[in-house]
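Hi R.,

As promised on Friday, here is the backbone we talked about, encoded as structure tokens. Could you run it through your design pipeline when you get a chance and send me back a sequence?
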């Protein structure tokens, strides 16, 4: 690298990073130009009077806007930079009373922005605080003594009422009120809240008990109806049973072989169902004496068992 190139680099560096920023700083100091950022506003005051207001974003040549005063405005005057962006605030639990005397709390949310920079700066020392106080006062003044049902149901109407009350005053201070919305309406008395909760719980218990009782009554009606119908049907069956059985036996008796087999089967079933002791002996006349002895032994055994039974004691 030659000496000429090195000198050129140094001069370029000094010019771009030192000389140009210093020159621009002096230009701004002596009011040659000003840059207004997006959503901001510049208010220039000289000797107690407003010299100019710049609310359009971009580059502004101050001598064309403020005239000759631009060269001394930054030295002898003041420049106020205001934020014009939309802002919002939420006021919690503003104390009001319903028409019935219930202590209620209202949470109100609202938007605002600077609409008149000069009025904002010089007509009120604290526009934001004044707007907050006016919204709070308007909420208490306009929404007190409302019926409790309307206070809990008509939040949109209440929001419009508060906004109409505050908008005129806020515009006079250069602070424009935007949307207003009642976000929350609640009870402030803890004792009343507990009483309402107890009433709701008791009412729920009553409704639940009534539902259960209604269900039990319906089940009882259904059960009693079913039992009555069943009793009627059983009575009808008991009434027609002898006739049906007699007709069946009459038809069976017309066939002697079938009747004999039927009664033999019935007798066998009765013997098996009685759980009696059964002794089988071979057929023949020589076993008749043995059968009589076994029958006598069984009868004596039955008499001894009946005599030693606990019931007989």
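Update: got your reply. Pasting your designed sequence below so it's all in one thread:
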């Amino acid at each position: 690298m030659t000496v000429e190139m090195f000198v050129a680099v140094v001069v370029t560096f000094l010019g771009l990073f030192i000389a140009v920023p210093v020159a621009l700083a002096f230009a701004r100091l002596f009011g040659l130009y000003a840059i207004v950022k997006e959503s901001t506003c510049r208010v220039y005051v000289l000797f107690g009077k407003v010299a100019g207001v710049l609310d359009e974003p971009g580059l502004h040549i101050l001598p064309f806007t403020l005239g000759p005063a631009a060269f001394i405005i930054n030295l002898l005057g003041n420049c106020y930079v205001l934020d014009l962006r939309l802002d919002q605030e939420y006021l919690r639990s503003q104390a009001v009373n319903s028409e019935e005397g219930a202590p209620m709390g209202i949470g109100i949310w609202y938007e605002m922005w600077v609409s008149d920079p000069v009025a904002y700066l010089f007509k009120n020392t604290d526009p934001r605080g004044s707007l907050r106080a006016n919204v709070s006062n308007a909420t208490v003044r306009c929404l007190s003594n409302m019926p409790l049902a309307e206070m809990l149901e008509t939040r949109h109407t209440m929001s419009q009422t508060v906004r109409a009350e505050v908008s005129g005053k806020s515009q006079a201070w250069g602070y424009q009120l935007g949307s207003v919305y009642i976000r929350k309406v609640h009870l402030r008395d803890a004792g009343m809240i507990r009483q309402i909760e107890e009433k709701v719980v008791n009412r729920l218990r009553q409704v639940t008990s009534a539902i259960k009782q209604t269900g039990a009554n319906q089940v009882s009606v259904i059960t009693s109806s079913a039992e009555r119908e069943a009793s009627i049907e059983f009575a009808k069956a008991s009434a027609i049973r002898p006739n049906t059985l007699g007709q069946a036996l009459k038809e069976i008796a017309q066939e002697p072989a079938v009747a004999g087999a039927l009664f033999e089967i019935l007798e066998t079933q009765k013997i098996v169902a009685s759980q009696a002791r059964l002794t089988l002996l071979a057929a023949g006349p020589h076993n008749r004496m043995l059968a009589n002895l076994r029958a006598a032994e069984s009868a004596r055994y039955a008499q001894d068992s009946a005599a030693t039974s606990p019931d007989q004691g």
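One thing I noticed while checking it: The longest helix spans residues 190-253.

Thanks again,
M.
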